Amino acid sequence: MYPLSSSVFASVRRHFDDPRIADAVLVTVPVDAERAEPVRLTATEAHEALYGQGSDPRFAAAVWQKVLRTALRDLAPQGTGKLLVIWLALPRLTGTVHRVCTRLRADRSDVEAEMVLALLEELAAPDFASRLCDSSLIHAARARAWHFAREKLRELPSNAVERIAQDRALTASGAEADAPAEDVLDVRVERPDGLCAPLRFRVRPEHLRKSAFADIDDGTRDRSTHPDSWKKRRPGRHAGTRPVRPAGRRS
């Protein structure tokens, strides 16, 4: 697996900007029966065959077939076969990246990373060797980008945690001012894909405002002493399981 940097597409482009990579013969493409020898292409020549002016659609299809076969046979962790597939797919993906980021305000580096993962997963599909279809790769990458960005929009913003530091100091009634006790807030962060993680904050009661956690349960509240607050909860909502991220920020 290749490391995913802050800009995946830029990293792949830089890799093939190296003359030692761009000018190396990477694929040998068979052509029609009238030609005795197959065509040996460097990475740059393969890119030109697909996107250059006056490119032949039939020859371009043959190039994709050979590039995909080479990628499937490339099992080395740092091999170039799969990187070549990603590089040759970039011109067909950058427009989708721009539209997704503009319309849904998604982070570009996240969208690019999701697209690359989709390409690699499609290459690893059990039946991919039997179809070797470049269009299925592009479709999978575009679909993953839109799905990822739309799922991010479903996160519910909350500023409960950020308000802690901004709340005015309150002294708990009956508590000693010189030795205040610590309170614990447990927040469970969940993602739509099922990943979750607990977060625990230790704060002093005088730094909290009672309304700051009106809708967050730390697991220690006695339901019998707060009947009204429990009656106001909407059916089906589980306390302490809201997705939490800083209000006003959208990724």
Task: For the structure shown, list the relevant keywords.
single chain, 251 residues, mainly alpha, two-stranded antiparallel ribbon, 11 helices, 4 strands, 43% helix, 10% strand, disordered N terminus
List the helices and strands and how they pair.
Blueprint: H1 8-17, H2 19-22, E1 25-29, E2 39-42, H3 43-51, H4 57-73, H5 81-89, H6 94-104, H7 108-123, H8 128-131, H9 134-153, H10 160-163, E3 183-190, E4 196-203, H11 227-231
Antiparallel strand pairs: 1-2, 3-4
Helix proportion: 40-55%
| Gross geometry | elongated
The neighbouring-strand order within the major sheet is: 1-2
Can you count the helices?
Answer: 11
Low-confidence stretches: 1-5, 168-177, 229-244
Number of DSSP E strands: 4
How much is the radius of gyration in Å?
27 Å
Multimer state: single chain
Q: What percentage of amino acids are in beta strands?
A: 5-15%
Mean pLDDT over the residues: 75
Distance between the first and last residues' Cα: 25 Å
Give the biggest sheet. 2 strands, antiparallel
**Secondary-structure element sequence?**
HHEEHHHHHHHHEEH
Judged by helices, strands and strand pairing, the structural class is: mainly alpha
